[in-house]
Amino acid sequence: MKILYHHRIASKDGQYVHVEGLTRALSSQGHELVWVTPGGTDEEAFGGESGVISWLKRLVPGAVYELMEFGYAVFAYLKLARAIRQHRPDVIYERYNLFLPAGVWAARRFGLPLISEVNAPLFEERGKTSGIVLKSLARWSEAYVWRKADAVLPVTEVLAEKVRERRGHGDGVTVVHNGIPEAMLEPIQGGREQAKLLLGLEGRDVLGFTGFMRDWHGLDAVLHAVARDPDGTRHALLVGDGPARPGLEALAGTLGITERVTFTGLVGREDIVRYVSAFDVALQPSVVPYASPLKLFEYMALGKAVVAPDSDNIREILRDGHDAALFDHSDAEAFAAGIDRVLSDADLRARIEGNIVQTVHERGYTWEANAQRVVAIATALRDANA
Fold first, then answer.
1. pTM of this prediction exceeds 0.85
2. How does pLDDT run across 27-47, given as a tens digit for each residue?
3. Residue 110 CA to chain centroid, in angstroms?
4. Up-side HSE of residue 184: CA atoms within 13 Å toward CB?
């Protein structure tokens, strides 16, 4: 198929990992991609954001910035129209964003099917985090895209319920979870012990986390779990960076465990495997209730004993005692107890490690399988539209 892929991402982060994973899989399966994007993201280092966007967010009043976002939709529509006339794609695949109805406009103008990938309810999310000034316009833009797209692909069933409610029906809504490249399922040479040796962590029980460190992740519980270890063998390997890091570093000093905690700082995507391979316990300490965490699938692919919240979106993927140790996320002590549970029960840990990779295979949590799902939906829409 010829797929016009449209996004408005201006930062090279987890969003970009998703885009790259899916589009590489589509290309490897022989499909042609036509790109319509803001441009410049490929040149950024991982974790980077467009300098212009960062500058605008800091200096421009909220209402003006949001009007500029909506104004970009007009520019994006013109780019889409030009690409459609030039390349004549079979379908438009758009990564949903707030204030971005350009894909709907182009699909209706040129009679093409539109697939909208939805990773978050951004009106709700931005309202709680950075805030929204033009609420009516933002709410309309989200509802407009979710209702008018021919197919909507939310990343969890929890999110799908929000989409169905906004659409007024469930037709055309298909859950497609995040995933990992199939290559990540290949056995790691030397395994965990070799990975530990390379990091100077041999003989340690490594409690590992990857991602952007925020206060609500509850990573302080990991440090307390390290501090109360009577044998002194536990080591926290925290891969990434974020606003919570200074506080965690200070807490490690207060607890007297600075030498038993490693903060790697920002790590390139190509290095993630060598760090995660060293984990004995992989930590998903908290989760947004509608998210499909990328780190979770990476943990799974590498056969790690995962400790994660017992929330609806996690239970879509994992089962307690089978391929994860799930904890009550409403209990402040339960996360640390979950870590203790896995480390103290060798049989449980072995069972989780043995089952979790199989779950990836059985349920197709790979970008390659997701690409096949997308193409099946796109083909049906194209044929119905013929």
1. yes
2. 999 999 999 999 754 544 544
3. 32
4. 29
- With residues binned 3-state (H G I as helix, E B as strand, rest as coil), the percentages for the chain, rounded to 5, are 50, 15, 35
Cβ-based burial of 126 (10 A; exposed 0-12, middle 13-18, buried ≥19): middle
pLDDT digits (tens, 9 = 90+) for 324-365: 999 998 898 899 999 999 999 999 999 999 999 999 999 999
Given a cut of 80, is residue 293 above it in pLDDT?
yes
Three-state secondary structure call for residue 27: helix
Output phi, psi for 250, to 5 deg.
-65, -40
Exposure of 143 in the CB half-sphere (CA atoms within 13 A)? 9
pLDDT band, residue 279 (cuts 50/70/90): very high
- pLDDT higher than 90, residue 216: no
User: Is-contact 270 301, C-beta < 8 A?
Assistant: no
Orientation angle between helical segments 62-87 and 51-59, nearest 10 degrees: 150
- Cα end-to-end distance, the chain, whole Å: 14
Q: Does 60 have pLDDT greater than 90? A: no
Q: Which two tokens stand for residue 162?
A: 């929000």
Q: Which domains does the chain have, with CATH numbers?
A: 2-179+366-385 (3.40.50.2000), 184-363 (3.40.50.2000)
116, 100, 78, 92: which is closest to 33 by C-alpha? 92
* Structure confidence at residue 230 (pLDDT): 80
At residue 102's C-alpha, the angle toward residues 98 and 104, to 5°, is 100
Residues near 350 by beta carbon (within 8 Å), at least 6 away in sequence? none
The DSSP secondary structure of 178-216, one letter per residue, reads --B-GGGGSPPTTHHHHHHHHHT-TT-EEEEEES---GG
Mean pLDDT, rounded, of the chain: 93
Number of helices (H), then strands (E), belonging to the chain: the values are: 16, 11
